Amino acid sequence: MKNCKAVVFFLLVTIISVFYLSYNKTPVFACEGSEYSFYILSNSSSAKVITVNGKSALATAKSVEGVRGESVFFDFNGIAKEYAFNFLIDFVDKKGAVLAFTEEGEWGVNYYLYTPKLNNSVVINNRAVNLHICINERGITAGYPLIFGSY
Questions:
Q1: In the beta sheet, which residues pair with residue 99?
Q2: Fewer CB within 10 A of the terminal residue: the chain, N end or C end?
Q3: Domain ranges (residues) in the chain
């Protein structure tokens, strides 16, 4: 009888876990971005990328299987700069992210950060990174674990 209860308990926990993981998918950057991109089956540049407008992000995140990363773009023409900066400052603070290094290039200034509160880190310049933020004249893009595509 004890074994039967254990099996039933195990099955219930498994079913609840599968239900939770299947239906409680929210984007890492749950915010009012202009555009979201989801990286499918890989958190590298070989990932299939699905890009949607900001309003479709939550529905897309819940319906797509195999999301391994994402990015959000804040277009300065469509979203107030103040909102974008405040969201990202708050996000970095809540996640306890620390700056690993920065790069300045033709596409803007790139900030590479790490936080133990996000999984799927990658190693760049011998440093673990799982949050990438690029600021340029077009806007701000934030990626988890990195930004892939244009920014």
A1: 113
A2: N
A3: 25-144
